[in-house]
From TrEMBL:
<feature type="domain" description="R3H">
    <location>
        <begin position="98"/>
        <end position="163"/>
    </location>
</feature>
<dbReference type="InterPro" id="IPR039247">
    <property type="entry name" value="KhpB"/>
</dbReference>
<dbReference type="GO" id="GO:0003723">
    <property type="term" value="F:RNA binding"/>
</dbReference>
<dbReference type="InterPro" id="IPR015946">
    <property type="entry name" value="KH_dom-like_a/b"/>
</dbReference>
<dbReference type="InterPro" id="IPR001374">
    <property type="entry name" value="R3H_dom"/>
</dbReference>
<dbReference type="InterPro" id="IPR036867">
    <property type="entry name" value="R3H_dom_sf"/>
</dbReference>
<dbReference type="Pfam" id="PF01424">
    <property type="entry name" value="R3H"/>
</dbReference>
<dbReference type="InterPro" id="IPR034079">
    <property type="entry name" value="R3H_KhpB"/>
</dbReference>
<protein>
    <submittedName>
        <fullName>R3H domain-containing protein</fullName>
    </submittedName>
</protein>
Amino acid sequence: MVQDEERSVEQLDREADIAADYLEGLLDIADYEGDIEMGVRNGRPMVQIVADDDTDIKHLIGRNGEVVDALQQLCRLAVQQETGERSHLIVDVDGFLKRKRQILRDMALDAVDDVRETGEPVDLKPMNSFERKIIHDVVRDEGLRSRSHGEEPKRYVTIYLKRTDVDDEELEDDDEYIVED
């Protein structure tokens, strides 16, 4: 299957099933109690680990979500090994991603306010691609522009005022104002 082709709900459910089985095995090995919830959201398979024990859950989230990111990568590899296809599977632990999205949204809105007040670009701290995507989406929705700079793992987002016609003439050949990540 070509990467850009839209996958059917059955295919997405299968990816979630494969990931859920993989995560259940990992939880058994680590001797963690947790329930696995699966579904499809926004055209992507989603698997969430929910546990009653706050101690175990904190270990599955990790510092700044590092363990969640690692679990997601492992699950994507397990899905790819079984299906032969790359997956855009999302793994969440106890609603961590929802909380993270809100924090990033608030950060982006604060930066947008600063840019509007001063007219000057604002650089944010280095972020992973998931975090940068959320920032870019919020900035675009607010009518401003953003661009990622730097190399991983120190890639960061700069937020700019929307370009005017005068800016367009002055910055015609300047690629600094590309809005893509």
